[in-house]
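seq:
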Amino acid sequence: MKPFTLENVLAYRKRLEDIAQHRFFEAQKVHQQVEQKLAEESNVLAVLSHCSERLQLEGVIITELIRYEERILQVKANVKAITKTLAEKAEIVFRERQNLINRANERQIMERLKDRQNKAWRAFLERKETIMLDEIAILRHDSENK
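struct:
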């Protein structure tokens, strides 16, 4: 009897790998979006800081300067929050990458197991065929000698 085929298992492992790959790419995409948002907020912060310094040198109404400083503090808080989010997204990307690597390795192991199983099955069939051919040759030889 032919042993259990691993086609269904391999197909399932491939689906798991495809899902892991999709999740990894999505995590990378989100990470890049957060990086872009951080860069934009950092640019806003740099522009606000520059404008605040320029206004201080020119001499401006204190209320306007206070508004600039409050906006700078708000943008700094945004940058800090985005940086924290970016670190979390980087961790998610790392975990998804590890998951993808594990899934790929599992699939490759199953493919090697399938190849070994198929080779063993072919060897078994060849041995069985050899035994049958030897038996036929013996029977033919016996019938010719009688």
